[in-house]
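Run log // design_07
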């Protein structure tokens, strides 16, 4: 089941994001402080026992732009279209909020292309560069992420 994250989910979300070796370091870790501050951005997928097995966030950047970020599904549960469903939940929320341009920075270009995202010039997303990218240890010389965008 996919639902909005709750306060009791923060530790599980943190665990998913911090287990970088399980997802090849493709997701930047987030501190507890960041997760509590942005909890309302997150959707989670829970298994039949109520355990959080995946997460994804919709981060509002500006009045006309939002970002899909922190998409992780526990490796045991991959291949069940859960990542797709999490992204779709975020896209639906973007439309509900009146935001019709959503992007992601990713190394998983085939996954996002399959969902309808298209490659975008990183220079077109300058708001993002001035927020998270400048604080990322992989910026600027070791970043392999590709900007991809979807107009809803």
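design_07 sequence
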């Amino acid at each position: 089941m996919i639902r909005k994250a709750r306060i009791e989910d923060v530790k599980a979300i943190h665990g998913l994001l911090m287990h970088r070796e399980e997802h090849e370091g493709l997701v930047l870790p987030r501190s507890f402080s960041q997760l509590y501050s942005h909890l309302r951005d997150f959707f989670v997928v829970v298994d039949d026992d109520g355990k959080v097995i995946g997460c994804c966030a919709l981060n509002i950047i500006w009045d006309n732009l939002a970002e899909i970020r922190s998409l992780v599904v526990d490796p045991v549960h991959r291949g069940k279209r859960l990542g797709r469903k999490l992204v779709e939940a975020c896209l639906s929320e973007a439309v509900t909020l009146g935001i019709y341009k959503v992007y992601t920075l990713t190394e998983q270009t085939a996954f996002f292309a399959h969902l309808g995202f298209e490659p975008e010039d990183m220079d077109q997303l300058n708001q993002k560069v001035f927020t998270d990218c400048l604080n990322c240890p992989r910026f600027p010389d070791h970043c392999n992420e590709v900007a991809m965008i979807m107009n809803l």
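The radius of gyration is 15 Å.
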